[in-house]
Amino acid sequence: MTNETEDLTSPECPAEETLKAVTGKWKPMIIRLALEGPLRFNTLLKQLPGSNKESVSNALKDLEGAGILIKNVIRLKPLHIEYTLSEKGKTITPILKTMEVLSAQACAKL
Amino acid sequence: MTNETEDLTSPECPAEETLKAVTGKWKPMIIRLALEGPLRFNTLLKQLPGSNKESVSNALKDLEGAGILIKNVIRLKPLHIEYTLSEKGKTITPILKTMEVLSAQACAKL
DNA sequence: TATGGTAGTCAATTTTTTCTGACTTATTGC
DNA sequence: GCAATAAGTCAGAAAAAATTGACTACCATA
């Protein structure tokens, strides 16, 4: 079955899509932190020293848009919002893990 | 044996080092093309439509500096320069390959 | 000596990304 | 009703990355 839909907006489509989802000043760290458990906005800001609301907010939106994080509103006493890694997000983490190993090798040489 | 060298310039060092080596508008494509064989400057420019000398030059320098590409001067008739993937470069390519699979999945959904 | 190919560099500009600080909305506690 | 906490948004400024066009250096051939 051939694909009939004309996909005018499609990129050249190599690793671009995934790379876009992972690049940005704060996204890799956010994914790493998401691996350890659900994220909350203000906590996250404190976990990312030097970051700022706007950038973290945008990164979260991008990661949510890319289907890597899932946003859930928790209707509890204080009412808060949690970001958790999706299944797709989990498939990306081995990539980051491999990168960490390569990075560690690079850092060891400094 | 503990590491005695004070490493003031070291980054936080997760996947950052590798990510930096791979990010930029042209670097992933350059690595992909390097997989297929040695690269030459002007040819590369033509293989990367929309690119420009300066950016490609900088990308090559970064990739060389990161130890991903190796620059060799070929002293022949026209005299040219070849960039080939290093062993380290080859260890990075499975990462890009995995990303391609994930990207393809993402593109398939568009 | 001029022309062409290869591999760039450099300064200035444009575009993109990130940062800052002020402001907003929703809910709870006093 | 008033302040506080949580989770943001928005406009403008600053910083970083990419683009442009002109220029350089090397070698070879006509």
TrEMBL record, chains A, B:
<dbReference type="InterPro" id="IPR002577">
    <property type="entry name" value="HTH_HxlR"/>
</dbReference>
<keyword id="KW-0805">Transcription regulation</keyword>
<feature type="domain" description="HTH hxlR-type">
    <location>
        <begin position="13"/>
        <end position="110"/>
    </location>
</feature>
<keyword id="KW-0804">Transcription</keyword>
<protein>
    <submittedName>
        <fullName>Transcriptional regulator</fullName>
    </submittedName>
</protein>
<dbReference type="Pfam" id="PF01638">
    <property type="entry name" value="HxlR"/>
</dbReference>
<dbReference type="GO" id="GO:0003677">
    <property type="term" value="F:DNA binding"/>
</dbReference>
<keyword id="KW-0238">DNA-binding</keyword>
<dbReference type="InterPro" id="IPR036390">
    <property type="entry name" value="WH_DNA-bd_sf"/>
</dbReference>
<dbReference type="InterPro" id="IPR036388">
    <property type="entry name" value="WH-like_DNA-bd_sf"/>
</dbReference>
